[in-house]
Amino acid sequence: MSDPDKAMDEAGLTNPQVRDYVRHWAEFTGADRVEVVSIADDARLIEEALDAGELEPAGTGRYYSRSYHKDTARSEERTIVATNDPKDKGVYNNWRPASEMRPLLESKMRGALAGKTMYVVPYLMSPPGNALAPWAAGVELTDTRTVVLHMMRMARVGVEFVNDLEDPDSFVRAVHVTGDLETLGHGTPDDQRYFVTVADERTILHFGSSYGGNALLGKIAHGLRQGAYDGWDSRKFLAEQYMLIGIHDKQTGETHHICGGFPSASGKTNLAMMLPPDALGDRYHVSFYGDDIAWLWVDEASGRLYGMNPEYGVFGVAKDTNETTNPTALHSVDEGTGAIFTNVAYNPQTQEVWWEGRTPEPPADVTGWLDWMGAPIADREPGDDSPWAHPNSRFTTTLANVPNIAPDYDTPSGVPIDAIIFGGRTRDREPLIRAIDDLAEGVYDGLTLGAEATFAAEGVEGQLRYDPMSNRPFMAYGEGDYARHYLNVVGAAKEQPIFAHVNWFQRDPEDDHFLWPGYRDNLRPLLWLIQLKKGEVTGRQTPVGIIPTEEELLLDGVDITPEDLETILSIDVERWRQEIGFREEHLAQFDNMPEEIWEAHRRVAAALDAEA
Question: Active site at which residues (predicted)?
Answer without folding.
Answer: 266
